[in-house]
Design a protein that fits this description.
two-stranded antiparallel ribbon, 1 helix, 10 strands, flat
């Protein structure tokens, strides 16, 4: 029975050493002189801290001084003479005879009859008896029994289960990609800038017609010219990424449900029936017959004649002819030549050179030191229970 257990233990250790890398078969069993003592090898992971230095790009803004030439308008004033013709009015006055008719008023007094009838109201007062009914209130007091319900609070302690979540830490290995790149020089071409077209004197030139292929001469004169600066090449350092996969331990918390019994104060309302006497006032109306004297006014109309004579002024028009002297004014225009000084403002463009600050972005690499942990597997030998020697029993 002991030999069978020994053989089974040796086979198990041989399989473990065969499947574990970096472990030799010489480390299977370490027997002593008198009896055999077996050991068990276990894998244990340890982490070594290492430091690494990498470079990260840092961007700074640098200002450069450049000279810029621009066109500035300058206004000048010139004196000139303007010749123009003015029409001057000349007035002449003469007298002419004019005959006209005039309507003269003649007033006469006449009398008009405006007699009219006037209706006058005569008021007469008489009395009559009027019977009416009056409702008089009578108040009566009585008592009635009123039942009402009262809610009385009753406090009780009840145990209720409360479920809460507890977060337990769990460590796992996670692969992360770390950028271990470097800076690479890259050429950037900046296109030239164009200015607004301006009027410039062009000298005599000889060009070739692209259609016919014949030489032709361009006369000198003013032409619209657009200036263009040549493109510039700049060398910049660009970060070239180099992703590397690294095993990193990650500790995460896993939720677990825990149920606890919590005492809770519960208040419930108990209904109780009560009664009370309530006084009730009842108002009833009693009818009473009454009599009163009411004055009544009667209006009667009486017609009266009123005589009235009204004087009226009547105006009639009489025509009369008259003669008067009327001045007549004649205006004629006479042309005159005049000279007037005029100020004219002339605007011309003048070249002006200025110094401006142009921002430029510069990238430099700054060293950064960081610490990372590297996992390593170590084989640890642990003793198993002692096995007796087969020779000594």
């Amino acid at each position: 029975m002991v030999d069978k257990a020994m053989n089974l233990l040796r086979i198990t250790l041989a399989v473990i050493f065969a499947t574990t890398p970096g472990v030799s078969s010489a480390q299977e069993v370490s027997p002593c002189a008198t009896c055999t003592q077996a050991y068990r090898l276990e894998c244990q992971t340890i982490y070594e801290e290492r430091q690494a230095t990498c470079y990260r790009p840092v961007t700074e803004t640098v200002y450069e001084t450049r000279k810029v030439t621009r066109q500035v308008p300058v206004t000048e004033t010139k004196q000139m003479e303007r010749h123009f013709t003015v029409m001057r009015p000349v007035t002449e006055t003469s007298m002419r005879e004019e005959r006209y008719c005039v309507q003269r008023q003649v007033f006469e007094t006449q009398y008009r009859d405006e007699s009219y009838d006037q209706v006058r109201n005569v008021v007469e007062t008489s009395y009559r008896d009027e019977c009416f009914t009056v409702q008089r209130p009578v108040v009566e007091t009585s008592e009635r029994t009123e039942f009402f319900t009262v809610q009385r609070p009753v406090c009780e302690t009840v145990m209720r289960p409360v479920t809460r979540t507890v977060m337990s830490p769990v460590t796992t290995m996670q692969q992360q990609v770390v950028d271990q790149g470097a800076l690479v020089n890259q050429v950037t071409v900046t296109p030239g800038s164009r200015s607004w077209p301006r009027l410039t004197w062009m000298s005599r030139q000889t060009t070739v017609d692209p259609v016919t292929g014949m030489a032709q001469t361009v006369r000198p004169g003013l032409a619209w010219v657009q200036n263009e600066t040549p493109p510039q090449q700049q060398v910049q350092q660009v970060w070239k990424p180099n992703p590397v996969v690294v095993q990193t331990p990650v500790t995460s918390f896993m939720p677990q449900q825990v149920v606890e019994q919590v005492p809770t104060q519960v208040t419930r309302m108990v209904a109780e029936q009560h009664s009370r006497k309530v006084p009730v006032q009842t108002v009833r109306m009693v009818s009473e017959q009454q009599t009163r004297r009411v004055p009544v006014q009667t209006t009667r109309q009486v017609v009266e004649r009123i005589e009235r004579k009204v004087p009226v002024q009547v105006c009639r028009m009489v025509t009369e002819q008259k003669v008067r002297q009327v001045p007549v004014t004649t205006c004629r225009m006479v042309a005159e030549k005049r000279i007037e000084p005029v100020e004219i403002k002339v605007c011309r463009l003048v070249d002006q050179t200025e110094e401006i600050q142009v921002p430029r972005t510069v990238t430099r690499m700054e060293p950064v030191t960081y610490t990372y942990r590297v996992p390593r597997t170590v084989m640890v030998r642990k003793p198993v229970e002692e096995v007796g020697c087969p020779t000594c029993g």
